[in-house]
Every structure is written in structure tokens, then in C-alpha cells.
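New to this. Please check this record:
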Amino acid sequence: MGEKVAVLGAGSWGTTLAILLAEKGKKVSLWARRKELAEELNWRRENPTYLPGVIIPYEVALTASLEQALHGATTVVLSVPSHAVREVVRAARPWLDPQAPVVNTAKGLEVETCLRLSQVVAAELGEVSLKRFAVVSGPSHAEEVSRRLPTTVVAASLDVALARAVQDLFATPYLRVYTNPDLTGVELAGALKNIIALASGMADGLGFGDNTRAALITRGLAEIARLGVRMGANPLTFAGLAGLGDLVVTCTSPHSRNRQAGLLLGRGHPLDQVLVQVGMVVEGVRTTKAACHLAARYGVEMPITREVYRVLFEGRPPQEGVARLMCRTMTREVEETPPFFPPSG
């Protein structure tokens, strides 16, 4: 895939991938939005805010200049929060090589438009950019990958050859990469699982147990798949790494920002204080708004998502949401058209 990789975004995941690529012998530029952060990372050779204790090798060039980061880059990795994707891509456009693949690692939806992030990139770079766009997703907390703990992810692209190239780019003895042509499903699964992780954290904060968490994960996966299939995704994607795998780890891990935020909400903390206390972007908050709009647009029932929305944006106590979920009209688990199987005919 070429020689130089520009990683845009110096958070935990961007820093981790920059280190991984440098250790594989790639020439790497790591772009930080703030000049002060780039300078701090450059002299400390550590990202104490997002990835304390992990050394950044000198082979990683730190910069706050998009022009410098992108100069000569034959692959671009987007590792900025989902709400910043449009702004960063627009700012980077003058220096992007038109042939350079763009690999996105953010997980979310654009709130204002409800677009998937591949669609946001296409809106800024043109529809032709989708032929060189890929996404890397799956159960992959940076805190563990940076310490070389065995991890598996999926590379998705409409271009099978590009997905395989991304697979080769990131694969290491501790990071195994699968490919998947279902870009829609992988993007939706990665975004929507954060909402269920918020709910899982709330349940933990309320003092509920493993039964509750298992129910949220299982029924959460069902409503994610319902929306995904309605939007054209492959139902099997939701049973894979980007779906079930990422959902499980995000709902259960102490590294999960969304679960942590839900935990604080369940303990009665208001949302504005929770976001300050977590200290990093909680993607599920914004995604909940977009998901509710999409559910209404596509006529899909998403009861957990709806209750999370009420807690986040209508000030409803989490206990009320639990009561409403438990007292819904009784129904069967397997529907007329189950979410994991396409409709016949």
C-alpha cells in the first residue's frame, strides 16, 4: 500500500495505530489538532492523556500541520471523533493524494445529517472516493492493542482488493484482521453498539446484574440488526466482529467510555457532568440522536435506543427506562422477519 501513512488524530487509537505501523517499518506521520499537543508528544514520546505508559517511537513524526502530515502520504488513516470527520476531511482535501486510500477508524453517525461516515467522506471528496475508502472496526480497545494483547478486527470496503490491502497493512502477530465487503453493516454496527453500551453502563450503575447485561446485549443486537438490515446491510455482519464482538466488549469493558458514561448516569450524575468526568469523547451520546431519527425514517422499532434517548435528552431517570422496557407488550423473540435473515421473495 505504499510507503508513507498519515494518521490524522492523536487520540488513543490514532496513537496506537501510528506506533503499530511504525513498528512494521512504515514511514508514519501522526497529526494532532492542537500544536501544543503535537509538541508535547514529540518531546515526551508518550501520550499521557490518552495512552499513558506507551512509548511513541521516534519513527513516528509528530505534527500539527495537515499539509506536512499528508505530504507524500500514500495512505491516510482517519482517527478523529465522528463529529470531526467532515471538518478534518474538508481541511485535508487540498493536500490529499486523489489516489490515496482513506481508512476510517471512527465509530459514529453524523448527527446533523444521519449519514454514515463513508457518506460524509464522499460528500466532501466526491462519490468516487468510496472506491478507495475502507473502515477498520471491531472489539479493539487501544489500551490493549498498544500493549500487544491479542485482538481481532475487520477491514470493510466496497473494493475487495482495498480491504485486503488494509488487512495486510495492519496485520501483526497480535492484531488479526479479517475482511468484509459490507461497508454499511460494519459502519452501522460500530456506531450503534455505543448506544447499547450506554444502557449497559446505566444498568450497572443501578446495581443490576449479569442477567440484565446479557438481556441488553442480546436485545440490543436485535434492534441494531433490524435497522441495519432495513438499511441494506448483510444480516450476518451483526453476528461478527463488528457486530456482536464489538458490542460485547463495549458493554462490558472498563476501557469503554460509553459504558463508563452510562455507569455514572445510572448513579444519578447529570449528563454534562458525566461528559466532563469521562474526559474523552463519548460517541454514543451523539449517535443516539441520529439513531432515533433513522429508526423513525425506516420504521424500525428500537426500544432500548429510545429509552437511552429519553435519559440523555429528556432528563428521565434510568429507572423509568428499565420499567418501560420490562413492561412493554409481550411479544415473541423471533419475529416474522428475523433480523438475521433477509426477507423472502
About this structure: The longest strand covers residues 151-157.
